[in-house]
Fold each of these.
Amino acid sequence: MAETFQTTSDIERLLAIAERLKAHLGEEAVEEVKTHNGEVTVTVRRQYLTEALRYLRDHEIFEMLVDATAVDYLPLRGEPRFEVVYHLLSLTHRLRLRIKVRVRSDDAWVPTVCFLYPSANPYEREIWDMFGIRIDGHPHLKRILTYDEFPGHPLRKDFPLFWQPGMPVEKPAEEFEEW
Amino acid sequence: MATVEWEQALMTINMGPQHPSTHGVLRLILTLEGETIVDAEPIIGYLHTAIEKEAEFKTYHKVITLNDRLDYVSGMTNNFAYCLAVEKLLGIEPPLRGQYLRVIVTELQRIASHLVFLGTMAFELGVMSAFFYCFREREKILDLFEMLCGARLTYSYIIVGGVRYDLPDGWVEKGREFLRDFPKAWQELNELISENPIWLSRTKGVGVLRKEDAIAWGVTGPSLRASGVPWDLRKTMPYSSYDHFDFEVVTAEEGDTYARYWVRMLEMMESVKIVRQAIENLPAGPVLADHPWATPPPKDLLDKDMEALIRHFLFYGRGYPVPPGEAYAAVESARGEVGFYIVSDGSEKPYRMHMRAPSFIHVHALPVAAKGHLLADLIAILASFDPVMGEVDR
């Protein structure tokens, strides 16, 4: 197990980075810093996301955004329904850090980070396509995996598994249990 | 006599989705000035199979069979990354022999995948015979896999807690035979291709991806190393006992199509080195961790022990619960960093499974490398990134 986990000193370094991030952005910007399974997750408020990633890229040298995705927590905990997850990788320090933003479904948007990390461009299009979270300021926000006329957003938890054209794209909440 | 003045205008043309050199159903909308590429826009999604959605409705064990269908040219690495992520959530460590077997199969898979890359790239650039040499060698690896797990393409050999089967009788000898013969075949390919003037003029200096661009675009794997970044997860963030083996991280400085080809060529030989070390130093012991519910019970206990039989039915029928939480685990596949991000809610099915696919990024980084080159070179550049559309579209 040890080989896939970041070591204790790595976690300490990541927590120190999280502290510096908090000091840079201010206390209210960071909702939560969590260590779990040897990974450090920092949850920031949406309005500070761009600044947080800019700080991490320029000052803590996280050069690469390896992955960006979202999770729909509707049946688990309700609102805020979505979490947008960014996985950062530092080639210099050999560290991985996860940044999260919580988004409510009635206000589902996040600012784009593709001007900081070009690799965010396709990932953000995928988030829009699969979850319907609008990416504010994205230069080319189009569906990427489904076709343009596709209704609904397939990876939302209320999207039926066996969907066919003509069917509603949302399942009522009381049917969640039997899935 | 009146002269005709040609207006210098940009032309938009469509390439794909059925173009034979696009490695699957990739469509590129190209903006050309004369024959020079000004811009390229990849249109993907033709192979979208919603595997991430489907995984939310299958138990953790059954999702393994979905994963190797994503990157169908190197299925082992997908199983590997997925199992590492689930093991992280469960807190299981596979026994050392299981870890070594994982290394053996993923390295053989890397050779097989690079052979497909080389064969198809050579085929597209007109070296048809290389295609047959490559697939002849790949066939030997697939035979080894078939002997090991009965499958040739979608293996599901690596499972949570270790690997499914131990080596069958005679496998080690066949493996040694392959390791003995492969360097000769490699040399044959090398002599056939690497010094060929046509090959050199089609690949040298074509499709240069600068170091900064490669990092900013999240390019990983051999394509990143060809741009001069010595980043290999096997060395820099070792997993599954990779730190026990002695091998080099192959890099090149140029970042062009030839560098991407050459890095993959040398990597094949490094993989041979790793497999040889792993086979010779293979530790004895079990290949699968013994976890009370997350690993299947030994087959020979089923007709003797009632508890084992119950465990067997629970494992395959209901599945096993995984503690709530989230985990991201990544391995170095033949194409780059394959990562799985799994969110568990404590039930038997993944709440969310996301795959970080290297080809997804490489396809979108393609315009950066292709800008300013001739249309005919696009084929070589695309082939040098070695995208597999199954994992692009997921």
Amino acid sequence: MTGAGMDFSILYYHFMQNAILAGLLGGITCSVVGVFVVTMHLSFIGVCIAHAAFAGALLGLWLGFNPLIGALLFSLASAAIIGPVADRGELNPDTSIGIIFSLMLGLAFLFMGLMPGAKTEALNLFWGSILTVTQQDIIFLAAITGAIVGLVVVFYKEIQAVICHREVALAVGIPATVVFYGLLFSTGVTITASLQSIGGLLIYCLILNPAAAAYQLTYSLKRMLLIAVAFGVISCWAGLAASYLLDIPSGAAIVITSAIIFGLATAFSPKRKVKGWQRVPLAG
Amino acid sequence: MDNTVIKIQDAVVSYREDVALQGVSLEVRKGEFIGIIGPNGAGKTTLLTVINGLGKLVHGKAWVLGSRLNGRNSINLRKRIGYVAQVENIDPRLPINVRETVMVGCYGRLGLFRRPTRAQRQTVDKVLEMVGMAHLSQRPIGHLSGGEYQRAAIARALVQQPEIFLLDEPTASIDKKAQREILSLIQLIHKEYHTTTLFVTHDLRMLPSICKRLILMKDGKIWQQGSPESMLREEVLSQLYGAPMSVPTEIAPLRT
């Protein structure tokens, strides 16, 4: 253990450098969009988009086109369907999103069942394989990370207004609906870009856990973004190290690390004392 | 010169099968303070949403601040209209403080790609001072009492430098002391800025004395309107609410 733990020669391997970069970029972008969905209380919508991306990628594998294109189309389409469904309230959002979620899971299994031959590639999309990401994957992930971070910097004030109180943002003349859908689509694009490395079943944990952990620790959105990004990257790198040292699947190690961080953040959260807190009001 | 700032003709609004407004026509002149009362479900809130362009007209026309509402221009008009809704339930952990939430008021006029200027930040501080919230400016918005939350909402609307002020039950769900303070604040603001104001309430005791015209709504229609003196009579109110009503005595002290 000591020998393997101290042996840094692994870092000279190209595949490991790629994995570290993928962890950095995936950790940043997943955590940033995670802050949006957690603050808007739309965690379930994110889960649904993640499964749609997964189903789309499997369709691509089955029909022989680039799985990332399938993932992108499915995740964007699901965001476009879920947004209005959640907004209009014709059905209880939980019910309608649950139906779309189960449909996506059903489609994923259907495409997988229809796929001829060995299903190694499909299984890789399930669990992710950060150790086998290619230069091309890294470039794609870097471009998406750059775009998402750039959008957050440029539209920070609109994003803050929309994720904290969308009705107010709408009433003061901010294009709140455009911003809202932009955030949902960003989630879809992020999931697509991280699918290869983290995996369709696990990606959502990396979106939810670091942001949810950061949500426990601060009342400042800027700080929340920074803390979430730090947690996301730490989860990826610590998971990667655990995967290498203990010879366990990397995606699983990343997700378990992020869940442990969430557990610790909740245990030490200064916001715990406001749990179950209610405003004084109520007319006397 | 005609100083009409709001003109609504025969407005019909429906939410699926429910008709919320049935042929409402209304004209509001610049600087007026109008009270809108009526039972729950009378269409009061819907009338306000027609004015700020969030309510979609199925039939009829509306002109606000000189422009005919057509769905495309409503986002620009909203930048000039302050809107305060009733206290909502918000997550106490929300990562935004009072100062930031008040600052949102100037984001509409500011537009995309631009950051608030020093002058706008100073305006926010001045308005926070005016509504008595300066000492709470760094507090998370979810940690305020109902009354404090409404002060913050009013401050946010003021930062917009609105030409029309829409207040939708701003005193609902808050305690009596806070209700009185909010009413005094609203009257003070009107005296100071003379902003055209529409004040909706279902609670007659919450009617500001500064109100010069009273609109009585029932079943999605304007049922009657006139001066508060002519409208606040037992037989009128009892008919409006469909139950025996007495004229609230609590309006009187607010006149001082």
